[in-house]
Write a structure and sequence with these properties.
CATH architecture of the largest domain in chain A: Alpha-Beta Barrel
Number of strands of chain B: 0
Shape of chain A: globular
Helix content of chain B: 55-70%
Order of helices and strands of chain B: HHHHH
Strand content of chain B: under 5%
Number of domains of chain B: 1
Structural class of chain A: alpha/beta
CATH superfamily of the largest domain in chain A: Aldolase class I
Number of helices of chain B: 5
Number of strands of chain A: 14
Largest sheet of chain B: none
Largest interface: A-B, 23 and 20 residues
Strand order of the largest sheet of chain A: 4-13-12-11-10-7-6-5
Largest sheet of chain A: 8 strands, parallel
Oligomer: heterodimer
Distance between the termini of chain A: 80 Å
CATH topology of the largest domain in chain A: TIM Barrel
Radius of gyration of chain B: 15 Å
Number of domains of chain A: 2
Helix content of chain A: 40-55%
Shape of chain B: elongated
Chain lengths: 516, 129
């Protein structure tokens, strides 16, 4: 029987040929070096070394089967694979394929940040096969001059004198000095001041670089409470009081969990603790610091609410909490406990599981937590059902980098939106995915002074301001197209959830009570 | 960051010193060096070129991040020297009792040990992803 002859690459034969060729070529150059010119021996030596390396691959190393079987030619696979991410991003990945942000999404942010024409031609690049969430417009759009200016005041429910008002719905989400280099922090902070929006400091201790640029700040307190801690990660009231007295610190945020790594503590290895980090975070030099997975004060709903109350009393500022939704009933229990104690945080930030981070274990990033557009309506519904929606504000975060997702979030219940990576993209982030290696090629998530040179603070601050300006422009346009005079008019009916989506929203009969 | 044995630095320093001490003879055009390279048919370009490369190899052997590359370069250079001794110069050069040849072999062996132990530093040799 004739087998079909197929033109194919026979890798074992090629490898055999290469492996035999290397010593033969070395020998040929050796002869040339002997009989023609001694200079040929440069090549003899090169091929001899190559033969040596090949010998190492084939007979000495035991880690890589491929190299043991095929020798040096097997290295080609690793070489080509190692440049794969760059090639995919530059040439081959489709405009809507990349993760976490597609090129279409990133390009939108870049254009907004550079303040250039953002119109598109011919048609959308996104899917229209009933798989994507869309916004619904109205037959009767509102004139833009009829819109009620956006205004949300945190802390008004408690009637405190330090209540904090924002006039744009965007806030820069938590990014610490540590995760980011100083140039990046200062560019963001300066941009935030120019745009008139607040910036979250992240859990990096005393926000020295954030404070330099004079923008409004939300001080984030992680489970290790860097900057306001005692030795055992408990809260030092005095330190918090001093910090809260700082004029530019407008709100305090207690971080319970984060979408990218919910329920995960952390370890700050002593190698990373420079004298500066040690001073800002109030941790000793030469000793690993453990971030516990939870605030040591908060072990039950009762103690958690008591802790919120304590932070409110000590700081005299609006106090929010940040969490990624996990088990739904725990959230409801927490809200019930708040009702019982009559203590409410001034806002709750729901962080979707799709949220970003500088470094987290892959399984935490990929597999833990509830995605934002499922978690947010749930949280809102619980608050409405428990009749406490008017006691606090709801803020959310998780890939909210463009007006579409931001408005979706607001229609699903949020009063304001946080984004960190949106602002990083505006700073010039190219999604190289190296935040955890101190090698950020655009100098954002690195402390290497050489790499930070490229990040010029005044120029990048302008981009942050541009990004906010253009976000607000789109936000207003969309809002009026959707027939809403203000964000308070937004409701789930404004969102089209495809049937193929795994979740449904509560019935729209709740429309007007959606936000009380 | 991988830790390498401290004693390796002794080898690195000895190899670097041996590489550096020949530079003087090569760059000043000492008669022995000129004679050697004339025999090889590489005078004077080859003498200067080899000298420069030996300088680079010696320098790299003393810079922590570049030790393995320096070792590999030194291996190549010494391999060339050994070939020269076998094919053109002979083991004993100008009644040195095989000193030059001995040094070349010594540096080659040391460079091989250094490079082997530090092979993970080499960009494409053992670092695979």
């Amino acid at each position: 029987m004739r087998t079909m002859v197929r033109l194919s690459i026979n890798l074992p034969k090629i490898a055999l040929f290469v492996n035999l060729s290397i010593p033969v070529i070395a020998l040929l150059f050796g002869l040339a070096g002997h009989y023609i010119s001694f200079y040929f021996h440069f090549l003899t030596v090169f091929f001899l070394l190559l033969a040596g390396i090949n010998y190492y691959y084939r007979h000495l190393q035991t880690g890589h089967s491929l190299l043991r079987n095929f020798g040096i030619i097997g290295q080609l696979r690793y070489l080509i694979e190692s440049v794969g991410p760059e090639f995919r991003q530059y040439l081959f990945a489709g405009d809507t394929e990349e993760r976490p942000f597609t090129r279409v999404e990133r390009a939108e942010v870049y254009r907004k940040a550079k303040d250039v024409d953002s119109s598109s031609a011919f048609g959308s690049l996104l899917e229209f096969n009933d798989s994507e969430i869309k916004l619904k417009h109205s037959l009767y759009p509102v004139d833009k001059d009829e819109l009620i200016p956006y205004r949300v005041t945190f802390g008004e429910e408690r009637g405190i004198k330090n209540a904090y008002t924002i006039t744009k719905p965007f806030m820069i989400s938590a990014m610490s000095f540590g995760a980011l280099g100083q140039n990046a922090v200062r560019s963001l902070a300066r941009g935030a001041r120019m745009a008139g929006i607040p910036m979250n400091t992240g859990e990096g201790g005393t926000p020295k670089y954030h404070l330099m640029e004079g923008c409004d700040l939300i001080f984030q307190m992680g489970t290790a409470k860097f900057g306001v801690r005692n030795e055992d990660s408990s809260l030092d009231d005095e330190k918090l009081r001093d910090l809260a007295a700082e004029d530019k610190i407008k709100m305090i945020e207690i971080k319970f969990s984060q979408g990218a790594k919910p329920g995960k503590g952390g370890l700050l290895p002593k190698e990373k603790i420079t004298p500066e980090i040690s001073a800002l975070r109030h941790v000793p030099l030469n000793k690993d610091v453990i971030s516990p997975p939870h605030h040591i004060e908060c072990t039950t709903p009762t103690t958690t609410v008591q802790f919120i109350k304590r932070v409110q009393d000590v700081s005299q500022l609006p106090v929010g909490i940040k969490l990624c939704l996990g088990r739904e009933e725990e959230f409801r229990t927490l809200i019930k406990e708040m009702k019982k104690q009559k203590v409410f945080p001034d806002y709750i930030d729901i962080d979707g599981a799709e949220g970003g981070t500088g470094a987290a274990p892959k399984s935490f990033m990929d597999d833990l937590g509830i995605p934002l557009f499922k978690a947010l309506p749930f949280a809102n519904r619980v608050l409405v059902e428990e009749k406490v929606r008017d006691k606090l504000k709801l803020v959310c975060s998780g890939k909210l980098i463009n007006p579409g997702r931001q408005l979706t979030a607001m229609a699903l219940g949020a009063d304001a939106v946080y984004t960190a990576r949106g602002f990083m993209l505006a700073l010039g982030c190219i999604q190289a995915l190296q935040c955890n290696h101190n090698t950020c090629p655009v100098g954002i998530t690195t402390h290497d002074p050489v790499l930070q040179q490229g990040l010029i603070i005044p120029d990048k601050a302008k981009r942050i301001a541009n990004y906010v300006k253009n976000l607000e422009h789109d936000f207003i346009e969309l809002l009026s197209a959707m027939g809403c005079r203000s964000t308070k008019d937004l409701c789930p009916e404004n969102v089209y959830i495809p049937r193929s989506a795994l979740f449904t929203l509560p019935s729209t009969t709740q429309k007007r009570t959606w936000k009380s | 960051m991988k830790c390498y044995p401290k004693w390796l630095w002794i080898l690195q320093i000895i190899a670097a010193i041996i590489l550096f001490q020949t530079l003087w003879f090569k760059f000043t055009g000492a008669p022995e060096a000129v004679a050697t390279f004339t025999l090889l048919g590489m005078e004077p370009t080859g003498r200067i070129l080899i000298g420069l490369l030996e300088g680079v190899a010696g320098l790299f052997l003393l810079i922590p991040r570049l030790v393995a590359s320096g070792g590999l370069l030194a291996m190549g250079l010494m391999l060339g020297a050994i070939i020269a001794h076998f094919t053109r110069l002979g083991i004993v050069v100008e009644n040195d009792g095989g000193l030059l040849f001995g040094l070349a072999v010594t540096v080659f062996v040391m460079a091989t040990i250094i490079t082997y132990i530090r092979r993970h530093q080499l960009p494409f040799i053992d670092k695979t992803c």
